């Protein structure tokens, strides 16, 4: 967590520099010296405000998660509370459009995702993100399915989001939000048909 009193312009500058360096050289090679050079600051600034590379990496991941949460919440607020399928699509879109789909953000997210397996704090942040996604999905799905079905389908949609996002990030053409929506809605339609026939 950055120290109180850090100039507001410095934090986004350093977060953006971190993502640019990770995009260029990868997470392991993203040294404090390279990030400081990219941001046009001294390494002392990073050490002073973030306690080193690890603190800056945590803040970068928090910023990506904040942006994701803000995007999803903004999309949900613009929709009626009973437009459940539209609201599910808004949650899907929030994971595939805008900030999240930017190449350097996607590459940074991918690097953090793999790194979080071995880092307790990054793992905790990833778990918070997963719980938030499932919670948003279950709220909408419980209006369409019973509780147990909603739970299973929420995990299915989350797995599709993760899988499509991962494949899109590794694809030189990037993430195709339209295709993601089509695939996930096809899955959701099949679930609606299946459970309505039981």
TrEMBL record:
* Keyword check for DNA-binding: yes
Q: In which pathway does it act?
A: Amine and polyamine biosynthesis; betaine biosynthesis via choline pathway [regulation]
Q: Which PROSITE patterns match?
A: HTH_TETR_1, HTH_TETR_2
Q: Which UniProt keywords apply?
A: DNA-binding, Repressor, Transcription, Transcription regulation
> Looking at the UniProt feature table, which residue ranges are given for the DNA-binding region?
31-50
User: Pfam families given for it?
Assistant: TetR_C_6, TetR_N
GO BP terms: namely: glycine betaine biosynthetic process from choline; negative regulation of DNA-templated transcription
Ranges that cross the membrane: none
Please give the Gene Ontology molecular function terms for this protein.
DNA-binding transcription factor activity; transcription cis-regulatory region binding
InterPro entries referenced in this protein's UniProt entry, alphabetically = BetI_C, DNA-bd_HTH_TetR-type_CS, Homeodomain-like_sf, HTH-type_TetR-like_transc_reg, HTH_TetR, Tet_transcr_reg_TetR-rel_C_sf, Tscrpt_rep_BetI
Start and end of every HTH tetR-type domain? Answer: 8-68
What job does this protein perform? Answer: Repressor involved in the biosynthesis of the osmoprotectant glycine betaine. It represses transcription of the choline transporter BetT and the genes of BetAB involved in the synthesis of glycine betaine. Repressor involved in choline regulation of the bet genes.
Protein name as it appears in the record: HTH-type transcriptional regulator BetI
Q: Which organism is it from?
A: Vibrio galatheae
Q: Which gene encodes it?
A: betI
């Amino acid at each position: 967590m950055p120290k109180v009193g850090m100039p507001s312009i410095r934090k986004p500058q350093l977060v953006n520099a971190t993502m640019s360096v990770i995009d260029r050289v990868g997470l392991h090679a993203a040294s404090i010296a390279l990030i400081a050079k990219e941001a046009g600051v001294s390494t002392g600034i990073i050490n002073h405000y973030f306690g080193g590379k690890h603190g800056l990496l945590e803040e970068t991941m928090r910023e990506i998660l904040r942006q994701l949460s803000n995007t999803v919440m903004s999309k949900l607020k613009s929709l009626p509370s009973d437009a459940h399928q539209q609201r599910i699509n808004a949650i899907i879109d929030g994971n595939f459009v805008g900030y999240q789909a930017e190449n350097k953000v996607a590459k940074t997210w991918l690097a953090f995702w793999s790194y979080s397996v071995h880092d307790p704090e990054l793992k905790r942040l990833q778990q918070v993100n997963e719980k938030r996604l499932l919670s948003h999905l279950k709220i909408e799905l419980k209006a369409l399915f019973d509780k147990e079905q909603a739970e299973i389908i929420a995990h299915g949609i989350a797995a599709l989001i993760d899988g499509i996002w991962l494949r899109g990030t590794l694809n030189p053409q990037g993430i195709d939000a339209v295709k993601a929506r089509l695939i996930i809605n096809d899955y959701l339609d099949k679930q609606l048909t299946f459970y309505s026939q039981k």
